[in-house]
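Work Package 3 (structural annotation) set out to generate three-dimensional models for the target panel prioritized at the project kickoff. During this period the team completed the workflow that converts sequence records into discrete structure tokens, so that structures can be stored uniformly alongside our sequence database. As a representative example, we reproduce one entry of 160 residues exactly as it appears in the project archive.
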Amino acid sequence: MMHITVLTVGRLSESWWRDAAAEYVKRLTRYCQPQIIEVADEKAPEKASAGERQRILDAEGERILKAADLSSPIWALDVRGRKMDSETFADRINEQSLQGISHLQFVIGGSLGLSEKVLSASSQRVSFSDMTFPHQLMRVVLLEQIYRGFRIIRGEPYHK
């Protein structure tokens, strides 16, 4: 059974986000061994300078890389990444499994995104949209798409 880790900057602050994420984690246990790893976020001032933004990205990036299993593939969620539909996303997960990969990691950055070090350590960059989403919402959307992906892989019904 594949191990899926979601590495994310920050915690879910509202109960409805926690409930939604927990529901998808529970559903995923039929298909994989899901794990959520939260790393601390940095406070980002509203009008941070370029240097301050870089310091924040670097600090969060170091925490992500320290928590990651660098011997397993990392898929970074990045607005500049590859866009794919749910079927293609499922196919990519299935390809990893067929290649003997037993641990796949997805990384969600904080409010400023991901550092270059994290992006460079990633084997794939995935974009869910050209739009920017709050990391709390993105965690739920990612978990739902991973769940949907496993249902597609198994030939089980899912909503289009």
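The radius of gyration is 15 Å.
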